[in-house]
């Protein structure tokens, strides 16, 4: 799915701003039929949960309604009119006046509605969106909805971040010609000092069968460096400038459709020339070993929840650069397209993850003491859930496959890969991912319960990403014992699978301002000592290829006795103030500069 852009043949109107808002329980039977009442307003993009003081809104389970009036530009006569949502968490019904024009399930990928013939240029229409925040055993991520004695629905889920909901990413109305570029795929490679650009263009619409396709690769100075004709082919860019971690360089692929010599549509797809390969126990970018330094993150900020915010986007990337981070994982869902565009432009490496978090009933059993039922049983996360997971994977790869910053797909976070049924669940998903994109390696983030001895899926993947909390959840406050168990664990993964290993999560909750001269959990000193212990172990394992601290910043979780105002494992507070560990990471990572510890040079 192409990202909407203004081009010589396309126009774009943003629909962000204040929309009318109502809970489904207060909006009447057909809220799309008239103006919403009562007159609450919400900003788009933003999650709605933290905006109001009314606890019924924050705790609401079910549908809420968004509404605004939209005027179609009068200059769009004879054009297609497309409505695009960056995401709606977790399911959406979209009405234009009283007509249902789109439905979508999946809270972190975009969807569109073709309004051609439904709305008229120059005219106004009422846009109403029903947003359903419910998670079940057939959603990704999964959850459970129960009904209490008072008749009110209650939501529970297995992931450790707050179930923010709403229209969290930009909404846009855009136009295209009636013959248009439907899709563009770019795959890059190297041939000596030249870059190769394999492209495929899909056209659709009125003259799609007779259209002529012309493409040009344009460098950052605006110079055309390669040209091609036809819906697919390979361009060659001599003396190519590579896209590299920390040194981004982007070309534009300008795609033009012509009919009888006249241009009918034009679309520009940015791309970077780079290669990614796993060879032995090395992760290679452009043929050179790459060592990941960075974070698991969250789309999470005060008041906005998961709402995309450009100010936080810029500031977060500045803080990552300050620490020396060269990468991050989109834990635990695809981030906004704007985030990946920014990473493309600034040379930050991304592990792009699906929203498959919580596929592990053993975690719930560990927290409650109740023996878990099999995770992959049909009544839990069996075949139907996998089908939903597969569709989410398709939408993720379709959206993000042209981003040079994305170097690996992560299919799930902490699944029950140690349980029977895991292989039957994941093997078809791995096959699907490789079919959709054979150019990028695959990984998953392994939970503590999955060990080198009992994991059932590690051989299916290219890189082993391990989440571990020795010294926090296990051997709390005893870093000496934790160090021995950590090293034994990681060496076991290397010995069994012979693949690159990285730490996709490690960290300790830390209360900012709490200090101690002893190994006191929750203190800033303990967080720094905890990370330093892990780094000593990483540096002793030659097959190790990266470290992603959990977490970049503190984030909100569901309320309960296990969390006090959220998860505090961030090296920055939720409002982005540094804890002591941030400076410790800065000293380490600037010394590594993207190389394995044994290859690094001193400051």
UniProtKB/TrEMBL annotation:
EC assignment: 3.2.1.31
Chain positions covered by the region annotation Disordered: 566-603
Residues in Glycosyl hydrolases family 2 sugar binding domain copies: 15-177
Domain annotation Glycoside hydrolase family 2 catalytic: ranges: 277-591
Transmembrane segment boundaries: none
Hydrolase listed as a keyword: yes
UniProt biased composition (Basic and acidic residues): 566-575, 590-603
EC category name: hydrolase
Domain Glycoside hydrolase family 2 immunoglobulin-like beta-sandwich: 179-274
Keyword annotations: Glycosidase, Hydrolase
A Pfam short name: Glyco_hydro_2_N
Membership in a protein family: Belongs to the glycosyl hydrolase 2 family.
Designated name of the protein: Beta-glucuronidase
Lineage: Bacteria, Bacillati, Actinomycetota, Actinomycetes, Kitasatosporales
Gene name, Swiss-Prot/TrEMBL: uidA
């Amino acid at each position: 799915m192409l990202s909407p852009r203004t081009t010589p043949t396309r126009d774009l109107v943003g629909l962000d701003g204040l929309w009318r808002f109502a809970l489904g329980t207060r909006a009447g039977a057909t809220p799309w039929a008239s103006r919403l009442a009562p007159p609450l307003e919400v900003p788009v993009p933003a999650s709605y949960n933290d905006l109001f003081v009314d606890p019924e809104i924050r705790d609401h389970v079910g549908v809420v309604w968004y509404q605004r009036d939209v005027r179609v530009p009068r200059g769009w006569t004879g054009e297609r009119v497309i409505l695009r949502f960056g995401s709606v968490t977790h399911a959406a019904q979209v009405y234009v006046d009283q007509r249902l024009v789109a439905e979508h399930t999946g809270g972190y990928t975009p969807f569109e509605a073709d309004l051609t013939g439904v709305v008229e240029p120059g005219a106004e229409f009422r846009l109403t969106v029903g947003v359903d925040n419910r998670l079940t055993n057939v959603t990704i991520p999964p959850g459970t909805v129960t009904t209490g004695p008072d008749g009110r629905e209650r939501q529970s889920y297995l992931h450790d971040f707050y179930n923010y909901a709403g229209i969290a990413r930009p909404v846009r109305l855009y136009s295209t010609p009636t013959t248009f570029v439907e899709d563009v795929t770019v795959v890059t490679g190297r041939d000596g000092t030249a870059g190769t650009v394999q492209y495929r263009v899909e056209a659709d619409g009125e003259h799609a069968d007779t259209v002529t396709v012309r493409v040009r690769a344009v460098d950052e100075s605006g110079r055309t460096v390669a040209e091609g004709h036809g819906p697919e082919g390979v361009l060659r860019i001599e003396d190519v400038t590579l896209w590299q971690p920390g040194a981004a360089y982007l070309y534009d692929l300008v795609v033009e459709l012509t009919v009888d010599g006249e241009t009918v549509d034009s679309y520009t797809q940015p791309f970077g020339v780079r290669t990614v390969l796993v060879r032995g126990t090395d992760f290679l970018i452009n043929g050179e070993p790459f060592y990941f330094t960075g974070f698991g993150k969250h789309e999470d900020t005060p008041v906005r929840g998961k709402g995309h915010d450009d100010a936080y986007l810029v500031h977060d990337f500045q803080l990552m650069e300050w620490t020396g981070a060269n990468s991050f994982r989109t834990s635990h869902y695809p981030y906004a397209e704007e985030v990946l565009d920014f990473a493309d432009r600034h040379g930050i490496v991304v592990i792009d993850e699906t929203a498959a978090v919580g596929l592990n009933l053993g975690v719930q059993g560990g927290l409650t003491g109740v023996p878990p039922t099999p995770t992959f049983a049909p009544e839990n996360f069996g075949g139907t859930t996998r089908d939903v997971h597969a569709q989410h994977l398709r939408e993720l790869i379709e959206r993000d496959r042209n981003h040079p910053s994305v170097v690996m797909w992560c299919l799930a976070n902490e699944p029950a890969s140690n349980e029977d049924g895991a292989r039957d669940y994941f093997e078809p998903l791995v096959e699907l991912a490789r079919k959709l994109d054979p150019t990028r390696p695959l990984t998953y983030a392994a939970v503590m319960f999955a060990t080198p001895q009992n994991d059932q899926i590690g051989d299916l993947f290219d890189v082993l990403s391990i989440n571990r909390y020795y010294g926090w959840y296990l051997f709390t406050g005893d870093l000496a014992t934790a160090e021995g168990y950590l090293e034994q664990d990681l060496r076991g993964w290397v010995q069994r699978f012979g693949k690159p290993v990285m730490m996709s999560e490690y960290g300790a909750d830390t209360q900012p301002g709490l200090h101690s001269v002893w190994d006191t959990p929750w203190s800033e000193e303990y967080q720094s000592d905890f990370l330093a212990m892990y780094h000593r172990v990483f540096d002793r394992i030659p097959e190790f290829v990266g470290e992603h601290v959990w977490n970049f910043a503190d984030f909100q979780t569901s309320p309960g006795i296990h969390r006090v105002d959220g998860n505090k494992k961030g090296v920055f507070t939720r409002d982005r103030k540094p804890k002591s560990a941030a400076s410790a990471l800065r000293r380490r990572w600037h010394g590594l500069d993207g190389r394995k510890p044994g290859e690094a040079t001193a400051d």
